[in-house]
Amino acid sequence: MLQISPRDSLGGEPLSPGDETHFWRVTRHGDLDCFTATFRKHIFPPHTHETYVVGVTLDGIHSYMHKGVRVRCEAGNICFINPDEVHDGAPDSYGYSYRMTYPSPDFLTSLLHEATGRPVGAPKFSQPGVRDPELAQMFCDAHQALESNTEPLFADEKLLAFYLTAIERYGGGLPSIIAAGRESDAVARTKDYLIAHMAEATDFQELARHVGLSAWHLIRVFRKATGLTPHAWLVDRRVHQARELLRAGESPSHIAVQCGFADQAHLTRSFKARLGVTPGQYKALLN
Fold first, then answer.
1. 113-160 residue pLDDT tens
2. How many Cβ atoms sit within 10 Å of the Cβ of residue 171?
3. Which one of 25, 49, 67, 279 is most buried, by most CB atoms within 10 A?
């Protein structure tokens, strides 16, 4: 994951007091540019991008002109700007914070092709700003996971689901998706791979290549067979393994690393969510 300094992210211009930015690139998703920012005073002049501009306002109001109309993207709203569409950007009232991505047309076209099994053109979003709390939360979950880079499988699942759902609702819809078959062998190989690499941070492209299916097809097939996405199934197995290690007398701090959790706090959250008690409480019950 490539990191770029805040000064570079604004073309070398110094930031105003109260402004903060963080820019990074996710190479496994077609060099996807990602951006988080808080702007109190910075004003973007009219400009275009060769990519899409897709993100969520977290706080305040992100104001921008788009096709002659002033868009006020309030907290919780999603911004959609197509490639080569002129827009500016300015704080409204006290400023705003947002999370943003810049997917290329090739990336979204490739994603649609993989998801549907059909040759398709680049999507075109019909609205520059929408209110969709469910989709906005999906985006924020994916963006935060991409930024932390500790759970790439989770990040990839959320990101793919977000873009495809956004295209389905606001980008012209999805072509008819080819029905998934009974790829029981692919599901079995996915389980075997995830268990063998339980302690590692596996990304979805790596997993899909091993199994021989597209990422989105794999999610659909696996969920149909198990009721869970690959990441959710993996976390479940990690918790099961943690429980066995606790029974064997291992300490929670050692278990977190062995089972592939980012840290002990991550283990505790996942363990309690599924079993209702923390690893420490569970260990105490065994005595």
1. 888 777 788 999 999 999 999 999 999 999 999 999 888 999 999 999
2. 23
3. 279
